[in-house]
Amino acid sequence: xxxxxxxxxxxxxxxxxxxxxxxxxxxxxxxxxxxxxxxxxxxxxxxxxxxxxxxxxxxxxxxxxxxxxxxxxxxxxxxxxxxxxxxxxxxxxxxxxxxxxxxxxxxxxxxxxxxxxxxxxxxxxxxxxxxxxxxxxxxxxxxxxxxxxxxxxxxxxxxxxxxxxxxxxxxxxxxxxxxxxxxxxxxxxxxxxxxxxxxxxxxxxxxxxxxxxxxxxxxxxxxxxxxxxxxxxxxxxxxxxxxxxxxxxxxxxxxxxxxxxxxxxxxxxxxxxxxxxxxxx
Length: 281
What we know:
- The protein folds into two domains: 6-129, no CATH class; 136-264, no CATH class.
- Helices cover 65% and strands 0% of the residues.
- The chain contains 16 helices and no strands.
- The protein has helices at residues 6-11, 14-30, 35-73, 88-91, 98-111, 121-145, 147-152, 155-160, 162-171, 176-184, 186-191, 193-200, 203-210, 222-231, 236-245, 259-264.
- Helix 2 (14-30) runs antiparallel to helix 3, helix 2 (14-30) crosses helix 5 and helix 6 (121-145) packs across helix 9.
- This is Sugar transferase.
């Protein structure tokens, strides 16, 4: 193992090793087999599967013990922080490999085994598989759209919102203009996922943009962006009426969004906007 490689370090984690063992077991007992044969194979191979998990855990503990003893004698041999490895950004995705997610679910379950947590292991495994499917689908779509864009994405933030993003991509897969706008502004989406998702899932958005197949759907509600701007120009009574009808965004307004970004987000010009056209000969 290369201690300066994020990929090697993550693949050396106990969660990753246990997950690989779980995947190998599943291939043996469930790969292309009917239910009856699969059950027989599970019963037959389960003892050896448990023994393999036990061996992996014991070997990992032994290696960890030797490492701790070594750095006590030679502190300079201590591994550098994972974040300082050169391949950290691109290799961090290995923490969201199916093997790692499965192994993590097993370790979390084992921590509270005395509470009967193993009865929930199957549910946790299913959630881990769903998480992996969501992240794989999103990253595949991002790579297909723009490889450079994919390389700039924070995989941790993406994983935290994977369920919402996956659902969004599935819902609007037949509406390319929205997906293109979303991918082009993916970093902005990761900053304000709740605001954007609330707008895209609203009845107003579906009626104004989805049903009409609008070519330039905005990622934010223009009326809510206008609300904060207009409230500054209204008297107290009209402000109260405005708050009752349209709530402004807490941290977003036309003033806080640069003009170039507003263009990329397909935001229309603010109401009562005054501009000057200059014609050059």
